[in-house]
Design brief:
Oligomer: single chain
Strand order of the largest sheet: 1-2
Structural class: mainly alpha
Number of domains: 1
Strand content: under 5%
Distance between the termini: 65 Å
């Protein structure tokens, strides 16, 4: 029998085709569970003509990759211990998520925070680039089982129980309401569709807005100064069973000093303006999402449901949720555009702070200056001041779960 001759070029192309194709009968969700976020994303991006579901997955995996990157930073450096309180006080997302202990962490420094949020901004931009190629008039459906999601926290390429996404994110997102899923219950599966692409795009703008705000007031120098002072003072690393004064109030002061040092410096005006633009874009994409979800007629494992649908997460949103939430966002847009003003505690009625100008013409933020008033004066204007009406309506509709739903709806 004459052997078949295959050219090296054809052999290489065939090998690439195999690498770019998941195992037979394996869903995309199962592929993530088997190989992880980064390898699945690399395979999807290598496709010359990805399907619509794959394009959405590329956007979603870029987003999840940013979360994974933050978890890996915490594990590599022990940042959750060194700057754990700072994660709360500075308002830094991702840096208070639980990670398994690292017996030999790398040294931590403030530049790592700058690098992290620079990468987060880039990840969000890559996600938007992919999502922008989705036709707005074509339907698709991507099924994702939450138990398949995991983060390679310790960078060893192997899935471990403490790396499950639900284990890491569940308690942080739901707090005391979190309950570990029943292992005997059917796996939680969401079918993401066209409307959800607008939701995800909106969320990437939220995270880019946060990232650019952090980078505008780059905290690296302030963090390093506090860490160096702890070393000079011979402050012991706190442990979970420490109840002394330094382990409580001292840790708070360290975090506050990081915050005060970060914001009380001349911010990067380009980054500040970019943050404002991203927050406004989030509102625009959120409006697009609710216009798309409002006309959905199915009820198939929904992520964010309309008034006639039920979320696969196990709840039904109260009727009017979309309109009420859009009212909250409209207030936020008016604040960013300077059409409504933030109330200030001193002075007469009919004046307030122009939040939009704080992004357009940013200045160092003196915390005592804002408390006393001299730092607020440059942004003080006469005009209509925002009222809590929309937020109270949303809070009343959510029945005490407004904070959680604000994170969910973005």
């Amino acid at each position: 029998m004459t052997p078949v001759k295959v050219s090296p070029v054809k052999a290489a192309l065939f090998a690439l085709l195999i690498l770019a194709t998941p195992a037979a009968a394996e869903t995309l969700s199962q592929e993530i569970g088997a190989t992880g976020i980064a390898p699945t994303l690399a395979r999807l991006k290598a496709q010359p003509e990805p399907a619509l579901e794959d394009i959405f997955a590329i956007g979603g995996l870029h987003f999840l990759g940013a979360v994974e990157r933050a978890l890996q930073l915490q594990w590599r450096t022990g940042a959750d211990q060194v700057a754990g309180n700072a994660g709360d006080t500075l308002g830094l997302p991702f840096l208070r998520l639980p990670v398994p202990p690292n017996p030999a962490p790398e040294p931590f420094n403030g530049a790592l925070i700058t690098q992290l949020f620079t990468h987060i901004d880039a990840d969000m931009a890559a996600a938007r680039t992919a999502l922008a190629t989705l036709p707005q008039d074509e339907e698709f459906g991507l099924e994702l089982t939450f138990s398949d999601l995991w983060f390679d926290v310790n960078l060893n390429g192997t899935r471990e129980p403490e790396e499950d996404a639900l284990t890491i994110l569940g308690p942080q997102l739901l707090g005391w309401e979190w309950q570990a899923p029943d292992p005997a219950a059917p796996p939680l599966t969401i079918r993401f569709d066209t409307a959800d692409a607008a939701w995800l795009t909106a969320y990437t703008h939220v995270m880019s807005g946060v990232a650019n705000t952090v980078l505008a007031f780059d905290p690296a120098t302030s963090i390093d100064r506090v860490i160096a002072s702890r070393t000079a003072l011979k402050v012991a690393q706190p442990s979970s069973d420490d109840f002394n004064f330094d382990a409580s109030f001292g840790q708070f002061l360290d975090a506050f000093a990081m915050l005060e040092g970060a914001v009380n410096q001349q911010p990067d005006a380009t980054r500040a303006k970019a943050a404002k633009d991203h927050f406004l874009a989030m509102i625009a994409e959120n409006r697009r999402f609710w216009s798309l979800v409002a006309v959905e007629a199915d009820n198939d494992r929904e992520w964010v449901p309309n008034d006639k649908q039920t979320s696969a997460l196990g709840f039904t949103l109260p009727p009017g949720t979309g309109d009420t939430w859009l009212g909250v966002l409209a207030d936020g847009e008016a604040l960013l555009q300077g059409r409504l003003l933030l109330p200030y505690w001193r002075g007469t009625d009919g004046q307030g702070i122009n939040l939009g100008r704080m992004f357009d013409d940013p200045a160092p933020i003196s915390i005592t200056g804002w408390l006393q008033g001299w730092a607020a004066v440059p942004y003080l204007e006469q005009g209509p001041v925002i009222t809590p009406t929309s937020l109270r309506q949303f809070d009343g509709l959510m029945g005490g779960n407004a904070g959680l739903m604000m994170v969910f709806l973005n």
